[in-house]
Amino acid sequence: MTYHKEGAAYQLEDRFEHHSAQPEGVSAQVATQDEVRVTTPPDVCGMGHRMKRKEDPRFIQGKGRYVDDVKLPGMLYMDIVRSPYAHAKILSIDASAALAMDGVVAVVTGKDLEQHGLHWMPTLMSDTQMVLPTDKVVYYAQEVAVVIATERYIAADAIEQVFVDYEPLPAVVDPFEAMEDNVIVRDDKEVKTNRIWHWEAGDKAATDQAFDEAAHVIKQYMHIPRIHVSSIETCGMVSDYNKAMGKFTIYMTSQAPHAHRTVFALVSGIPEHKIQIISPDIGGGFGGKVPVYPGYVCCIVASLLLGRPVKWIEDRSENLQADSFARDYHITAEMAADSDGKIVGLRVNTLADNGCADAAANPSKFPAGMYSICTGSYDLKAAHVNVDAVYTTKPPGGVAYRCSFRVTEAVHMIERMTDIMAHDLGVDPAEYRMNNFIKADQFPYKSPTGWEYDSGNYHNALRKAMDMIGYEELRQEQAEKRARGEFMGIGISSFTEVVGAGPSRDYDILGVKMFDSAEIRIHPTGKAIARFGTKSQGQGHETTYAQIVAEELGLPANDIEVEEGDTDTAPYGLGTYASRSTPTAGAAAAMAARKIKAKAKKIAAYLLEVGEDDLEWNVNQWQVKGSPEQAKTIQDIAFAAYTNNPPGMEPGLEATDYYDPPNLTFPFGSYICVVDIDSGTGEVKVRRFVAVDDCGNIINPLIVEGQVHGGLTMGLAPALYEEIVYDENGQCLTGTLADYLLPTAVESPKWETGHTITPSPHHPIGAKGVGESPTVGAPPAIANAVVDALWHLGVRHIDIPITPQKVWQALREHGVTD
Amino acid sequence: MSQHTITLTVNGQEQTHQVDARLLLVHFIRENLNLTGTHIGCDSTSCGACTVHINGRAVKSCTVFAVQANGKSVETIESLAAGGDLHPLQEGFWEKHGLQCGYCTPGMIMSAKHLLEKNPNPTEEEIRWAISGNLCRCTGYNKIVEAIQYAAEKLRETEAVA
Ligand code: FES
Ligand code: FES
Predict the structure, then answer these.
(1) Residue A90: beta bridge partners?
(2) Complex ipTM, two decimals?
(3) Which end of chain A lies in a sparser environment, N or C, as judged by fewer CB atoms within 10 Å?
(4) A312 to chain B, minimum CA–CA distance in Å?
């Protein structure tokens, strides 16, 4: 990979190095199984058990504790004055009327923050972003000032009484126009350009050659539109500054509490041990609770200035209009095939609309995330991909939307292109994929853009999906329907994900390496607490982590309390996003448990008066080889560790592990979707959807199913419904859930799921992570199905979201008039 | 702001409060009564996280003023396991993995409860329409539907025994 940057005022070059090849010996070919492996009895409930979630009792009884449920004595409420313009100079701000209101305690503006040097903050990509503006606003609904009052309703009234005088400037909505630099979004930068960076991966010369020699070449432009995670809980904070102790206790909707603590400490100069971040129950994250938003910073500053706890909870419309968005890639892709139809080359030019700041949450050496995974599941000779990022007058981005950094964009492109090529060549899309897949005996597979895929078996997964859905019969039915003039389509997506960032040699966020951690403490009575650097937002960590520890130590999962999200007690970690928890903290759980097991062996040998070599492990005990009745259970050993520990040995039974993965993991799957299209209205109905996922070893099949179902609905959403839309003035037209359409139970089909199991060879428990595969894999399956239904009319491509209007138009353009 | 005295029954307990005319029922429940199981997820009556029952009907409490509940009976998620035993719907959501982050769950359960009170044996289609005013971003809805089917069956069994 090579990188260079055009003009932005901050330095990126030294962070943009090639990600190095992984160390030898961490990958090996692994066999694929069908059955989930279970080695522990139900009372232990280790890996593979369909255990009911341990966290559920509080949620089903309305006893979860989310940020807005936190109420502290003397607490004040903050609300935010927002810009009605996408781009405007601020001439003056008059807060006197607001300040005169009963119950209003303070108004804070950018000028106030400037006195403390806090009016700007770094983004997680080392760009900068305004906290509150001093000179101009650069997106619609931008935070302009905050009001703090004794009551929520008073604060909401008072923001209407803050009068801001604006001088509107032209908005820059179209990223192609932004490239021309006629209007500069970020005139705070030294170099006056909207271009942020340019990034490339792959081998340009080899790719050019592959295209020169190709028999078939196709080219397609596609837009992966801007979307919003819209977790049902919005973002919020309660910041409590204890003046006497000089300490902050901050309750925050944070997917990465440790990283946020470090950022706050570095930016504000407050000593890190004087900041305690508590990320309580989180009502969904999906990447939207990774960035630091201006509201958080203002809330902290307000509690510091006023010496009282301050609460800030976003409204949904604020959340949709101003928080970080996802996607917004304009892609022009070209694919080359030889005379046998074999794909030989891929060329991808991309324009990334980053809004007013590069505020993605990618690992810092990866400005376009893992986008170079774009050769997907296919064995290509050569590929070259580049991305240009530009500023526009829109909210900053782009975070993920339940996907590993930019993998969704990559997968959508390659799966659409493969389908177009198959249709062009007149080959069935399933057969075409089979002919071009990386073969099982090619793993570990080195991709033309530099990735080393750890394990896979793509043919097997697609075959299984075809069997589950009855592929051949469906093609038959489609032919009959087509003869009758009905529109039915079958779409496939055979995706490869890349998750689990990541190995510390390449992966960091603002310099902090992307390991993760686990700390396990076994109490004298054989019960345990395990703490982690990650933070569940619904993924079920309290259950799955307990199952991993149960698997390793034989302690019943129900005897293990799992805790996350409190920076004063949890070991340091980078948090939960990009499907990284199982690959990193899940591995740390196993490794910490193994350290405990090793110490337990010594204690058992002492208690049984035998040598360590005479012992073997059996589910939950160390036993003497050949005479299993001579044994010490993990509970016996725990008690002895505190009451009768071997002379000279440190008492206690606990361990911590910071796990630095040797490579990423590469989950994969094959999805098949059947759609029926109403030619009168253009409505697309997903009739069936089969998803076969391979996420390596499965910790809890029930939770994996839940993750896949949820991810599929979040894949359906951008495929058919969701898009954040702006008018030419940069006004957001989709600022409420009445305009921005989340699928309900009615639109969401009955998902049919299956799995194959190809363990990761380098992960301690062979797991890969699954939460995001379906969000990544589903959109192209749906888009491919729609185009498949209309291909014979001459329709080659429709951009997502595939709304009835777009389909209706395509039908009319191609002569269907009924 | 004009103040009003309201008397209402919340989860079986009659009580009287002074409230602002404009106070939303959801804020009254969460802030004044400290019953935080009822959630807020939007500002356009779209998400259903705030669903409670008023006189036995599922209602989005973000779109009702507290004063409108005067003289009525309000039931929130906290009423369901008040006796210590989980309601069949709560059991179903736990058993069938009908929740992930749990934020939509109280509202979902209250909507489902209204459905099962009207229609003890709903089809899958009827269940999906009945919860179509409740958004869930995590589960993909399949397992919520299964949870409601589980509860419906369990409630019918209890009914048959009684
Ligand atoms: S809070 Fe969304 S409908 Fe009431
Ligand atoms: S479980 Fe998270 S929104 Fe439904």
Answers:
(1) A166
(2) 0.98
(3) C
(4) 14
